[in-house]
Automatic annotation (TrEMBL), chains A, B:
Gene Ontology process terms (BP): phenylacetate catabolic process
An MF annotation (GO) of this entry: nucleotide binding
Coiled coil: none
Keywords per UniProt: Ligase, Nucleotide-binding
Its job: Catalyzes the activation of phenylacetic acid (PA) to phenylacetyl-CoA (PA-CoA).
Domain (AMP-dependent synthetase/ligase): residue spans on this chain: 78-284
Protein name: Phenylacetate-coenzyme A ligase
Pathway: Aromatic compound metabolism; phenylacetate degradation
InterPro entries: AMP-bd_C_sf, AMP-dep_Lig_C, AMP-dep_synth/lig_dom, ANL_N_sf, PA_CoA_ligase
Subunit structure comment from the entry: Monomer.
Cited Pfam families: AMP-binding (PF00501), AMP-binding_C_2 (PF14535)
Length: 432, 432
């Protein structure tokens, strides 16, 4: 197996040994800001408290609220002059979260990202089109630096502007793209409207992530473009992209455990859940100098996939993100994740490219409507067939989420489109 | 004098010597693409033809049309796998121009950009906010890489969104910004509307460029923010920013002659103009491997400033860009550059922050109207004073451009604002 760097193939033992060493160093580094120093002191964790990886659990969690409280630079663990980059969340709601990086941090991040791309066969001969927004959002510069580090011809196309994306990809024979899954569909539609077959497009690999989508959805865009789509996971608090990535097996995302310690905990109790069970991902950075972060509560729901990966890499795999702890909505007393609904409806061949979940209150109680686009070839005038499909979808949804929604079949392209993250849920219920 | 690298202080002799060596190497490199090989062969220029820098003039010019004709990769002089970055013009009109860079090209570009910033006192302790668009436009990534190379804390803020720009700059105590001159005014207005004095803003240095503006305009934004604004020059065909930059003297832009050979020629004849006379800037890249470009006709009008710079650097200085050969408009048979008009009106203390040139045809002949915003304190109801000001401005304009325009004084903030490049001329004449 050709690998980008040695750490990619480390054994479980070597990984664990390195994690322990780096965790100790990270703890020492984190104490250089008063926030962590005080918090670790309160928890009674001194320089010699960590003797094994199990001691990790003694370290208090860091929440998004903690990061906000330390905005802008409360968590800095190096002199400000050592910082070469700041990324921050858009901050449209409340205080933003800012993450500051040293040159070493940036280099290590680029290496991890290059390792992800190399793992799925991206090479310096590839032409890579980055359809992410640049600027403060980490998906742009983060992946850009990784692709250049790997030596790809990197096209910083930025988001949107389908006509230009298509022209660039054709003119430069783009083989690899970083693209939002929902935008891949839009691009495919655009090509079809131009009378072209997206399968003739030169793309062979897509890096996808940044919004939730199902396995069915992934298969759909893979078939649409005759390419492979690999799931990417990252969050700006842990640099950005490059945290976890699928190998060629497409069976879970390897988390780079030489750079991070992942845990999965019960979102309510904070206690670890057994391997294979869904919970909230918690991450500790191991290589960051500028702003190390300990046991960060990501709010992302996933599970560890048990057993070793066929590919031979020992870095633990997590499942695709199954939702956000915060995206959950409650209807008729039941917890529902939008992803559960998508997973059901996308198994129907009649279903088109978009859907929308509407939560309403009809004066008596909560009502969930699910609007589902139906492909043109099935949207015939045979009312009986459509009614029957509607009924089957509603039943399958009830089986999954224990609530019976009102399913409405709509024509393809009739639901609102967006070039950014797709909006899947509209909660129109009056706030209580 | 503290300098970023040794080449910054090279003597005239050392520069000339290096230029000759690098010109020969660049010619050899350029022959690796058939376009230049054929063109040089046609001109009878072989590997040994260049014996002195004067032989440069025997090399044919390269025009934007040439670059377009070779889109996308006709000018590539390395194997495609050596390319790590592509930048290209937006291509909204006609075929775009694409420039491909190797890793060495990117590194050399970042070094030049860092040298520019270092020259005006930017240091790793500074916080640098890049208000340029990222992506394919070189002002984003080009300056970003330079700032990180210098070790500044770089905030990739991107363009627009004044509220966020102000919040970031305040929260991180931004000391240096890359900003469009017209946007600096908008930001200042925004601060004033918030009831704040822009002079209390932490900015101490601005890198400005990318759109034409006058010395008066520069002084105005310097006073507005109590900062220094340094003119930056670059064009994507020669990498992007980092080609020329003002030193602390603010008296012309040093062109980095270890990396480029600049010439100034008559735009019509292509013959060199005497030092100090205005003409079209022609540039030859000396360090580029991926896509060397020989004697590129920039269409930018400027002149060499004669004599050595007080700062001691021997790299030749050019004047600010005095216009685009293509921006020129003809009215009543006279060639006029918008910059000539701005230079005149901005000398009046009564004049506010914006103006607009309207070219119309009243059925009899061409008419030029110049709408000029007047500061609130002067926009009094004393009609006589305003009429007299109107007349004086018209006379001064006639003296400069030999045509008498119709001058209209308007209230401040009444002309359309844009967050991108300011639109200064509207040609409403029917096309002939
Ligand atoms: Zn694997
Ligand atoms: Zn100087």
């Amino acid at each position: 197996m050709e690998v980008f760097d040695a750490a990619e193939l480390w054994s479980r033992e070597r990984i664990a040994e390195t994690q322990l060493t780096r965790l100790k160093a990270t703890l020492a580094q984190s104490r250089k800001c008063s926030f962590y120093r005080e918090r670790l002191d309160e928890a009674g964790i001194g320089p010699d408290s960590i003797r094994s990886l199990d001691d990790l659990r003694r370290i208090p969690f860091t929440t998004k609220q903690d990061l906000r409280s330390q905005y802008p630079t409360g968590l800095l663990c190096v002199p400000p002059s050592e910082i070469v980059r700041m990324h921050c969340s858009s901050g449209t709601t409340g205080t933003p979260v800012a993450i500051c990086h040293t040159q070493n941090d940036i280099n290590a991040w680029a290496d991890l990202m290059a390792r992800c791309m190399h793992m799925v066969g991206v090479r310096r001969e590839d032409v890579f089109q980055n359809m992410s927004g640049y600027g403060l959002f980490t998906g742009g510069l983060g992946i850009h630096f990784g692709a250049e580090r790997l030596g790809c011809m990197t096209i910083p196309a930025g988001p949107g502007n389908s006509r230009r994306q298509i022209k660039l990809a054709k003119d430069f024979r783009t083989t690899v793209a970083h693209i939002l899954p929902s935008y891949a569909l839009i691009l495919g539609e655009h090509l079809r409207n131009m009378g072209e077959d997206p399968r003739d497009f030169p793309l062979r690999i897509a890096l996808v992530g940044a919004e939730p989508y199902t396995e069915e959805f992934r298969k759909r865009i893979e078939e649409l473009f005759d390419m492979k789509a690999y799931n990417s996971y990252g969050l700006s608090e842990m640099n950005g992209p490059g945290v976890g990535f699928e190998c060629l097996e497409q069976n879970g995302l390897h988390i780079w455990e030489d750079a991070y310690i992942p845990e999965i905990v019960d979102p309510d109790t904070g206690e670890p859940v057994p391997d294979g069970e869904v919970g909230e991902l918690v991450m500790t950075s191991l290589c960051r100098q500028g702003m190390p972060i300990l046991r960060y509560r990501t709010r992302d729901l996933t599970r560890f996939l048990p057993g070793p990966c066929v590919c031979g890499r020992a870095h633990r795999r997590m499942d695709r993100i199954l939702g956000r702890a915060d995206d959950m909505f409650i209807i008729k007393g039941v917890n529902v994740y939008p992803m559960q609904i998508e997973q059901v409806i996308m198994t129907f061949k009649e279903v088109g490219q978009s859907y929308l979940i509407l939560l309403e209150n009809d004066g008596i109680g909560d009502v969930m409507r699910v609007q589902v686009e139906i492909r043109d070839e099935y949207f015939v005038e045979d009312m009986r067939a459509l009614q029957s499909l509607q009924k089957v979808i509603a039943q399958r949804l009830r089986d999954e989420i224990l609530v019976t929604p009102r399913v409405e079949l709509v024509e393809s392209n009739s639901l609102p489109r967006t070039e950014g993250k797709a909006v899947r849920v509209q909660d129109l219920r009056a706030k209580k």
